């Protein structure tokens, strides 16, 4: 079988038996290490997406692989019916890293957001005194927090939202980046403000300076929880542990996921104030795999990597170089560049090629990236990438824009 036949055969199998809820680039990856992946035909590509930030530490980081292997060789699952020797240590180490007081472990990012919504509502009824079933949560336009029925209820993306109703009530949407709109939306039934510090799926959108400080003040003044969804933006992606750290602002709750599992297994968490997460009592919330030993072992290794500060520093330093290189392409097929650290949204010239077309041209140049919406590339290389590899990828993008 020729190389092209092998690739085509695998893709055909995916298309025949898998639900068509994704539109992947036609490349079949079979091996990976660091910032590089290899397809079934033996061709290597530089990964410029990092599994939407799930692979912040690159593919198969040796510390993370070792932690997973060692744990799998000892113990895989106990459920939360019993204690295990990894859970408490993981919670303690993650709380220390994030400067928080309590940890709720889950599996996926959407589960973390769902859990934060449940906690905020329960807190509103039991602590703040909001009337039963009246709690409201303020969210932003162009948000992305996951794909469960409740979460898509407050999405304004028609592809994610339409035809999944009836929808969950209790959400108030305001323009992203408008602090006065947040203040105006707060009322006696407001339980929380839930937003991404930097919007990822929307195209790596950074709000105006001062926005988060204003929102924090509004929440504090009105006894409203601030929930920061750091599932994509957190864990060193932007050059700080949290994207919110750039603004000198602390949230009451943070949702974490993606990179927390090191690109090996799904691990997510809600971390924050003990008096808020403390509204959960035995039986009121749970997950069979949430906080299972393998997840905790890998999560502890991730915390260990972040505790050194090396990856935050790499993201900040290399991020400046990445943005300098990308901004040099303005007017050459690029209309705008946004982001922080090793995270960028690149808007393409509206009269030029689509994001899908540029992603395909990049693939042909040996770089893997992916569009969000029609004309924006979302760039998020692994934090282990080198300066020379960034130059290699941006040079490839420059060529792809001219094809």
TrEMBL record:
A Pfam family per the record: Aminotran_3
Keywords tagged on the record: Amino-acid biosynthesis, Aminotransferase, Proline biosynthesis, Pyridoxal phosphate, Transferase
One Gene Ontology biological process: L-proline biosynthetic process
Annotated GO MF terms: identical protein binding; ornithine aminotransferase activity; pyridoxal phosphate binding
Top EC class of this enzyme: transferase
Top-level taxonomic group: Bacteria
E.C. code: 2.6.1.13
Record-linked SUPFAM superfamilies: PLP-dependent transferases
InterPro entries named among the record's database cross-references: Aminotrans_3, Aminotrans_3_PPA_site, Class-III_PLP-dep_AT, Orn_aminotrans, PyrdxlP-dep_Trfase, PyrdxlP-dep_Trfase_major, PyrdxlP-dep_Trfase_small
Annotated metabolic or biological route of this protein: Amino-acid biosynthesis; L-proline biosynthesis; L-glutamate 5-semialdehyde from L-ornithine: step 1/1
Cofactor(s) recorded in Swiss-Prot or TrEMBL: pyridoxal 5'-phosphate
Family listed: Belongs to the class-III pyridoxal-phosphate-dependent aminotransferase family.
NCBIfam families documented for this protein: Orn_aminotrans
Name under which the protein is recorded: ornithine aminotransferase
């Amino acid at each position: 079988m020729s190389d092209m036949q092998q690739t085509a055969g695998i893709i055909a199998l995916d298309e025949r038996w898998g639900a068509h809820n994704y539109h992947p680039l036609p490349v079949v990856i079979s091996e990976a290490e660091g910032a590089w992946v290899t397809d079934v035909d033996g061709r290597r590509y530089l990964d410029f997406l990092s599994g939407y930030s799930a692979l912040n530490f690159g593919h198969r980081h040796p510390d993370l692989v070792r932690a997973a292997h060692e744990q799998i060789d000892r113990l895989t699952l106990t459920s939360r019916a019993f204690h295990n020797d990894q859970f408490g240590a993981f919670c303690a180490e993650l709380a220390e890293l994030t400067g928080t007081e309590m940890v709720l472990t889950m599996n996926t990012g959407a589960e973390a957001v769902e859990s934060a919504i449940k906690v905020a509502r329960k807190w509103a009824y039991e602590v703040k005194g909001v009337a039963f079933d009246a709690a409201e949560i303020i969210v932003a336009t162009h948000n992305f927090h996951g794909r469960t029925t409740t979460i898509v209820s407050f999405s304004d993306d028609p592809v994610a939202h339409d035809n999944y109703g009836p929808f969950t009530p209790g959400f108030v949407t305001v323009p992203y980046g408008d602090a006065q709109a947040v203040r105006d939306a707060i009322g006696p039934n407001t339980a929380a403000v839930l937003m991404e510090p930097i919007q990822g799926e929307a195209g790596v959108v950074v709000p105006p300076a001062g926005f988060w400080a204003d929102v924090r003040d509004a929440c504090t003044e009105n006894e409203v929880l601030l929930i920061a969804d750091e599932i994509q933006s957190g864990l060193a992606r932007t050059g700080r542990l949290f994207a919110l750290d750039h603004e000198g602002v602390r949230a009451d709750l943070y949702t974490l996921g993606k990179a927390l599992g090191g690109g090996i297994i799904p691990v997510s968490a809600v971390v924050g104030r003990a008096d808020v997460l403390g509204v959960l009592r035995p039986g009121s919330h749970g997950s069979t795999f949430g906080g299972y030993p393998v997840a905790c072992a890998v999560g502890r290794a991730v915390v260990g990597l972040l505790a050194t500060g090396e990856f935050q520093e790499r993201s900040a330093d290399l991020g400046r170089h990445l943005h300098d290189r990308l901004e040099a392409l303005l007017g050459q097929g690029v209309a705008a560049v946004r982001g922080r650290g090793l995270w960028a949204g690149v808007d393409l010239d509206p009269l030029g090629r689509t994001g899908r077309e540029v992603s395909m041209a990049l693939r042909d140049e040996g770089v893997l990236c992916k569009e969000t919406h029609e004309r924006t590339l979302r760039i998020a290389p692994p934090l282990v990438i080198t300066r020379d590899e960034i130059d290699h990828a941006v040079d490839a993008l420059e060529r792809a824009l001219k094809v």
